[in-house]
Amino acid sequence: MPENAATEPVPADFWFDPLCPWAWMTSRWMLEVEKVRPVRTRWHVMSLAVLNEPRLDELPEQYREAMKDAWGPVRVCIAAEREHGGEVLGPLYTALGVRFHHRGLPRNRETLVDALTSVGLPAELADAAESDRYDDALRASHKEGIDLVGQDVGTPVIAVPGADGEQIAFFGPVVTPAPKGEAAARLWDGTLLVASTPGFYEIKRTRDVGPQFDDAEDAEG
Asked: What confidence score (pLDDT) does residue 131 get?
């Protein structure tokens, strides 16, 4: 989308699981896109644990164990959204991502509390990590995003309004490091171009590097 194509920001709905390092890279790119294109990101929760439930027995043992630990952070995120509104998700996601991906902190209650309090949210929201109280809301949020793209993808899912009013939704892009400035803008424009092409489904190549994170201070904006 050209920079002068709209005067009002275009909403970009972004579904994330805070445990995924690749979704984290894409989310930092989206924050760069907001600086160079008239785009406003709206954050939503999806869950790798929910996504992998139907095929849990087929997963390697190490990944199955990881899925057990995947419930806590998304439950805390959805609890925060339900109790304090959707606008808290962006700051909370950033706080969690910096701690998980940049600082390598454990996905435990102490880290969850630290992230919550750092953005002004009550520490007791961490109780949701061990509770199924918000699981219906979590599954509904996950379903909303995954229904737009199908079951053959992971996190993140991004959806934007198309020219005809219908949503254009896609998984990814998977990229590292997160592009900045004009590079971020070019990737956004190109992603929208291919995603809006009827019948287009996939571009892919083998990943030969892992996620390359900026300094934590940069990631926090």
From this structure: 97
How many whole angstroms separate alpha carbon 170 and alpha carbon 202?
Answer: 9
CATH number at residue 169: 3.40.30.10
Q: Which amino acid is at 189?
A: D
Asked if 40 and 34 count as a contact pair (C-beta separation under 8 A), the reply is yes
- Report DSSP state, residue 178: P
Q: What stretches in the chain show pLDDT beneath 70?
A: 1-6, 57, 59, 63, 216-221
Asked if residue 1 is part of any domain, the answer here is: no
Query: What pLDDT, on a 0 to 100 scale, did the predictor assign at position 5?
Result: 47
CB-based burial label for 135 (10 Å; 0-12, 13-18, 19+): middle
Lookup: tokens for 3: 């920079």
